[in-house]
Amino acid sequence: MASLLGSTVRTIHSQGTSLHEILSSAQSALHARELLVNSVSGFGPKQASLFLRRVGYCSDLAVLDVHILDYLRIAHGINPKAGTISRLASYERIEAEFQRVAREFGYAIGCVDLAMWVTMRVAKREAVL
């Protein structure tokens, strides 16, 4: 992980920019995620979404981890092929399905995402699933 971070810092600085400038140039949360995926070594869509939520940039991007994907599979029959979720276009297709499901709950995407994550994690640990 440290080598990826070092590589990212060198790349960003060699371009004469900063992470703050990269995010400031984004036209939307989706664009910010794309910029991070393309700029940060080792970041895929999930990691970039989580980073943007954790730093308070936005809360409307889903963090599609195994717990969320299991919920979508069990409750809605949405089952992405293994490995496809790491590609931004595939991630965004599954995220759109998740956003549709999240709207049914009537809460912000980040809240539904976190609630599902906790629920699925506990259900798996307690062997309910």
Total domain units: 2
Give the end-to-end Cα distance, rounded to a whole number of Å. 32 Å
Q: Tell me the fraction of residues in β-strands, as a range.
A: under 5%
Helix content: 55-70%
* pLDDT < 50 stretches: none
The shape is elongated
Please state the structural category.
Answer: mainly alpha
Major beta sheet summary: none
Q: Which whole number gives the mean pLDDT?
A: 88
Number of helices: 7
Radius of gyration: 16 Å
**Count of beta strands:** 0
Element-level helix/strand string: HHHHHHH
What tags apply to this protein structure?
129 residues, mainly alpha, elongated, 67% helix, single chain
Task: Briefly characterize the structure.
This protein is mainly alpha-helical and 129 residues long. Helices cover 67% and strands 0% of the residues.
General description of the model:
There is one protein chain. The radius of gyration is 16 Å and the shape is elongated. The chain has two domains: 2-54, no CATH class; 66-125, no CATH class. The protein is built from seven helices and no strands. Helices cover 67% and strands 0% of the residues. By secondary structure, it is mostly helical.
Secondary structure blueprint with pairings:
Layout: H1 2-14, H2 19-24, H3 29-39, H4 45-54, H5 66-76, H6 88-105, H7 109-125
Helix pairs in contact: 3-4, 5-7
